[in-house]
Every structure is written in C-alpha cells, then in structure tokens.
Amino acid sequence: MEKWGIGEANPIPPKAIGYTLLTEMSSFKGRYLYTVDAKGRLAIPAKLRKSISGRGSVVITRGFEKCLYVYPLEEWKKVEEYIRTLSFLDARHRFFGRTLFQWAMDSDLDSQSRISLPQELLKYAEISSDALILGVVSRIEIWSPTVYDEYLKLQPDTYETVVERVFQQKP
After folding, report:
1. What pTM did the predictor assign?
2. In CATH terms, is domain 26-158 a member of 3.30.280.10?
3. Considering only CA atoms, which of 156, 148, 81, 72 is closest in space to residue 115?
4. How far apart are CA 68 and CA 156, in angstroms?
5. How confident is the model at residue 170 (pLDDT cuts 50, 70, 90)?
6. Which residues, at least 6 apart from 66, have a Cβ–Cβ distance to it below 8 Å?
7. Domain ranges of the chain
C-alpha cells in the first residue's frame, strides 16, 4: 500500500494537497556474521529479510572494494533504470555496465531463507566460510570479515571526519 507524506493512507492525490507521495522502500541496516556452507549458500538474517518483498527475489552482483551486493528485485530495477540513462558512446559507461551485468545473477530465498552465491563471486570477494553481512540502506553487502577489517584500516579519514564532509555538502 502506498503511503502519503503525512504517513496515512489518503484517497486525495498528493498534488491536490501539496504532499509528496512516498512509496515503501527497502531499508537495510545492521551487521551480522554468518557462515557460507559448502554449496555456497548463505542465510539472510531475519531483520534483513523483512525488506525483501515478494517471494524473496534478489539480484547478486560484484560490488566495490571486494564485496558482493545483494539487491531486492525492486531496488535492482532502479539500478537498471539508471544504467539505461548512461551513454553507450562513453567507453567508461560501457565498461561499467558490462562489468556490473556480467556478474549479476537472480536468486530467490530458499525455504531456509538462504541465497546461493556463485563460486566466481565468492572467489572475487575472498569469502571462504565466514561472511560479514551489512545492511546498507537499499542493498545488502557481503564481505569476507578479513577483507572488511583491512578495508576499514586503510581508510585515510576517521568516521567523524567523513561525517563532517558528507553533511557539509548537503543544502
């Protein structure tokens, strides 16, 4: 069901009353340590499953900094729409689209709320058995705990410094 800017169902179109139409969006958050089984299956934590609608369809692809991205289908459609706006005449746009989509695969949560991760993606992310699962607003990130710890150590700025810079850019 759609929600109106005032947070209640409203039969009056938003333009008629000056409110912006808000739709239900994915909202992933939290940090979880789980295990990938020998077949490459990973359980999705219950708190994260709440934001995966329908029959649990997701798209898994290569992320940045050696992690994997897991998008609920409705969020993946937004990524696809953005990619459609890129110019095929720009070599960087073509490279980005090819790289993102060559690794992308559909997956459905199984009866035990697991997704299957392809061996190629597990190898890319250096995930063998333990997996760190992060909720990051519109997507889930899956990391090797070791790779993630190294990523954090290599950050040149502190969290506080980054927050200051990010929020100074907002109007």
Report:
1. 0.80
2. no
3. 72
4. 23
5. low
6. 124, 125, 126, 143, 144, 147, 151
7. 26-158
Residue 140: CB atoms within 10 Å? 29
Q: How far apart are CA 53 and CA 67, in angstroms?
A: 23
Structural tokens at position 114 = 């697991």
**In Å, how far from its chain's centre is CA 3?**
23
Question: What are the tokens at 72?
Answer: 């609920």
Going 25 to 147 to 66 to 157, the CA torsion angle's sign is: positive
Among 3-17, 22-36, 110-124, 131-145, the range scoring the smallest mean pLDDT is 3-17
From the list 54, 61, 62, the residue with the least C-alpha distance to 26 is 54
